[in-house]
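wait is this the right file?? whatever heres the structure
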């Protein structure tokens, strides 16, 4: 750093007040002292920040650019006492959560439900690729990662996985297909348009195996990485789809989707992954101990 923040502050006050004399009154310092400090800043930056204008001074182009940056720095600084006062009155307990992009939003909501029962919690939730989230977790940018698979065994990452819950798979459908279907489940899937998660999801392989086992030749009309997008298209009448049984109530309430049939032999598992063997963050413990 080639310049002094104190010098930058003096420059900022002069620029905001419009003159050295007014800045001197505000800072309760001699004009000569302030002028010398501003000249030191100009010397360290290599640019003139003020130029004569009549009997006073005005900003140069470089001065305007410096003022824009100084405004951001010192405007925030002046708000610091107010921010700290507010924070001390209502302290927030923060937790940085990574959510694997293959995880259902409705399932995620259920897994994080314990945090909603704790006062003054601030969740910072990041959605992303599984591998990227694990890297951020290992670097302590995240406190916990929620995913549909455990972390791989790796001495370099040193991560710990906890199974939070599991749920059997259920097939869901807009009402129109249930009313129109003339075959029992699962034979009816041979005649209905089907929406599936992409191979990005760990459960997709199990679904494909289940089709083969039950002699079903699926008419796949859509594949989605985003589970919420899949449900939106299903709601519009595009097709039937599989999802976990534990969100049956939410699907009916939010999307008007009905149960078509159950796959009791397919389970989807949900994991919490952390980077420390001993749980230090009580909010992480609340998620794991649910």
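ok assuming it is, sequence goes like this
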């Amino acid at each position: 750093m080639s310049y002094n923040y104190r010098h930058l502050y003096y420059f900022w006050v002069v620029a905001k007040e419009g003159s050295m004399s007014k800045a001197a009154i505000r800072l309760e310092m001699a004009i000569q002292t302030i002028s010398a400090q501003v000249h030191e800043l100009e010397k360290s930056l290599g640019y003139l920040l003020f130029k004569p204008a009549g009997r006073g001074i005005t900003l140069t182009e470089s001065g305007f650019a410096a003022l824009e940056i100084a405004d951001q720095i010192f405007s925030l600084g002046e708000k610091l006492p107010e921010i700290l006062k507010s924070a001390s009155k209502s302290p927030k307990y923060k937790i940085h959560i990574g959510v694997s992009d293959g995880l259902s939003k409705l399932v995620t909501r259920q897994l994080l439900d314990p945090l909603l029962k704790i006062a003054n919690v601030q969740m910072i939730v990041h959605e992303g690729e599984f591998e990227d989230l694990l890297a951020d977790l290992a670097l302590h940018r995240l406190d916990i990662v929620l995913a549909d698979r455990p972390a791989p065994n790796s001495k370099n990452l040193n991560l710990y996985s906890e199974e939070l819950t599991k749920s059997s798979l259920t097939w869901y459908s807009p009402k129109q297909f249930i009313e129109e279907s003339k075959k029992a489940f699962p034979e009816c899937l041979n005649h209905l348009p089907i929406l599936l998660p992409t191979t990005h999801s760990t459960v997709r392989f199990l679904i494909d195996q289940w089709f083969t086992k039950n002699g079903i030749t699926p008419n796949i009309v859509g594949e989605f990485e985003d589970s919420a997008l899949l449900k939106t298209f299903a709601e519009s009448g595009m097709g039937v789809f599989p999802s976990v049984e534990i969100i049956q109530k939410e699907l009916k309430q939010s999307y008007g989707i009905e149960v078509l049939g159950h796959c009791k032999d397919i389970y989807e598992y949900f994991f919490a992954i952390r980077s420390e063997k001993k749980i230090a963050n009580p909010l992480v413990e609340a998620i794991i101990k649910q």
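The chain has a mean pLDDT of 90. so i think its the right one actually
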